[in-house]
Automatic annotation (TrEMBL):
Gene3D superfamilies: Exo-inulinase, domain 1, Phosphatidylinositol (PI) phosphodiesterase. It holds the Pfam family GDPD. InterPro entries: GP_PDE_dom, PLC-like_Pdiesterase_TIM-brl. Residues 34-263 form the GP-PDE domain. It comes from Jatrophihabitans lederbergiae. This is Glycerophosphodiester phosphodiesterase family protein. PANTHER family: GLYCEROPHOSPHODIESTER PHOSPHODIESTERASE (PTHR46211:SF14), GLYCEROPHOSPHORYL DIESTER PHOSPHODIESTERASE (PTHR46211). It comes from the Bacteria.
Length: 474
């Protein structure tokens, strides 16, 4: 995409969530409970720590925007997460060694490392640029990433007159002293249990942010000490649930609209947008969300002998989880062996990560539908993470680059999978009578195969006499 092209294109579906643009600014003291913080500016949905990401966060109404702030060696503040610029820009080197001028020539090559719809010419924003555009429109939660960052952040907040609409955070306790002295809300970040909530509160700190790797039982002592306890970072609804039950005041998320249940549920895939929609979450084993192609497909191009897959949160949860049809096209470009496959995991009651390792995983239940390049169509039932083959059928060999159409029909007592790209035949269908698992979450994936998916859609029966409004479509 050239510099002159409209980079708002990736926001077409984001805007479907409902814009809050133009709403009265919310102060840090009047945030809802719980409130949601867009980690790095919705880093699962937009290229992190860019003005484009921050704008999108505000446009769709997320409560708080988090810009990471590094103090440059010439006293400026630039927004970037890592301690090097290598991962997200076309440059290299340590972030704290930057000057403002040096940061200004860097380009965030998001089309390379994030998603194909994004240009490679986004800029690394400075904190004053963020304040100039969003300082009076949004609650910000800047993080002081290095020594001196806390004082520099307060200097800029004072200059722009927004000391009372910001929560300043840091892992470094000393960086919060100038924040407390200015009367601005301070948040202490911690990944350990070694802290004294009473001492933190008495020092003037109002917010304590706990790592999601810690137990939710730590919320209660913080609340008892008078702290607003926040958790970082949760990207799945199943992971957010125990923290919400424990009474957290806020949650950091890379995908806050999805995790909070506010993202629209689509009936057909958004792959033609060539960027990640809400709830597109990779398996926690591989951490690979796949790539987009043309026309309108998404998947994995390698044939490595490991599972790669992702939750298709754009279509989840399916409302009528015990009666629906899921249809999709699946192209197998190449395989490491004839047993390489493309697959659908469905019937899951929640959005926890799926992989086909066959290890005990409490709560991971559903059905794994596999189509191998050899043409074997299989259904495996997954009980607590352990897969058991329950039905199979031999269909025609899938030629390299060949596209197959699958139809999966779910009823309260039966699961039927049919290969519909050929003339109807009993051998092209496999059915099980099983009512064990019915849920509204599904995943697409592959093993030992380069597989791309397209034309994925969910259809549900219309209940006579009731309205069933359509969700936004891409």
């Amino acid at each position: 995409m050239s510099d002159s092209e409209d980079i708002s294109i990736p926001f077409r579906l984001l805007a479907a969530a409902g814009s809050r643009a133009g709403a009265a600014p919310v102060s840090a003291s009047t945030l809802p409970h719980p409130f949601w913080i867009a980690h790095r500016g919705m880093a699962s949905v937009c290229p992190e720590n860019t003005l484009e990401a921050y704008r999108a966060t505000v446009a769709v109404g997320v409560d708080v925007v988090e810009p990471d702030c590094w103090l440059t060696r010439d006293g400026g503040l630039v927004c970037m997460h890592d301690d090097t610029v290598d991962r997200t820009t076309d440059g290299s080197g340590r972030t704290h060694d930057l000057t403002l001028a040096g940061a200004g020539v860097l380009r965030v090559d998001a089309g390379e490392w994030f998603a194909e719809a994004w240009p490679n010419t986004l800029r690394v924003p400075t904190f004053p640029e963020v304040l100039e555009e969003l300082g009076v429109r949004a609650v910000l939660c800047p993080e002081a990433k290095n020594t001196g960052g806390g004082s520099a952040i307060i200097e800029h907040l004072t200059r722009y007159g927004v000391l009372d609409t910001v929560i300043v955070q840091s892992f470094m306790r000393a960086e919060l002293d100038p924040v407390i002295a200015a009367g601005t809300d301070a948040m202490m970040l911690t990944a350990t249990e070694h802290y004294d909530p009473d001492s933190l509160r008495k020092s003037g700190i109002r917010y304590l942010a706990l790592s999601a790797a810690l137990p939710p039982s730590l919320v209660a002592p913080g609340v008892a000490a008078g702290l607003n306890v926040v958790v970082w970072v949760v990207d799945r609804r199943v992971d957010a649930a125990p923290w919400l039950a424990a009474g957290v005041a806020g949650l950091f998320s890379n995908d806050p609209l999805y995790v909070s249940g506010r993202s629209p549920v689509l009936r057909s895939d958004p792959f033609a947008q060539r960027t990640y929609y809400y709830g597109h979450l990779a398996s926690s084993i591989a951490g690979d969300r796949g790539i987009f192609g043309a026309p309108g497909d998404w998947g994995y191009s390698t044939i490595a002998d490991d599972y790669r897959g992702a939750l298709q949160g754009w279509g989840c949860p399916i409302d009528s989880a015990d009666r629906y049809s899921l249809t999709l096209s699946l192209r197998i470009d190449d395989t490491a062996t004839p047993d390489g496959y493309g697959s659908v995991f469905l019937g899951a009651a929640d959005d926890r990560s799926f992989d086909d390792a066959g290890r005990y995983h409490p709560g991971l239940n559903g059905y794994h539908v596999l189509l191998r390049r050899s043409g074997v169509l299989e259904i495996h039932r997954v009980d607590q993470g352990i897969a058991t083959p329950v039905a199979s059928a031999q269909t025609a060999l899938v030629e390299p680059g060949g596209t197959v159409r699958l139809g999966i029909d779910v009823t309260p007592a039966r699961l039927a999978v049919t290969r519909t790209d050929r003339a109807p035949a009993d051998s092209d269908s496999v059915t099980i009578d099983d009512s064990r698992y019915r849920g509204g979450y599904f995943h697409l994936g592959r093993r030992a195969a380069a597989v791309h998916f397209s034309d994925v859609s969910v259809s549900q029966p219309v209940i006579t006499g009731t309205a069933h409004p359509e969700s936004p479509t891409p």
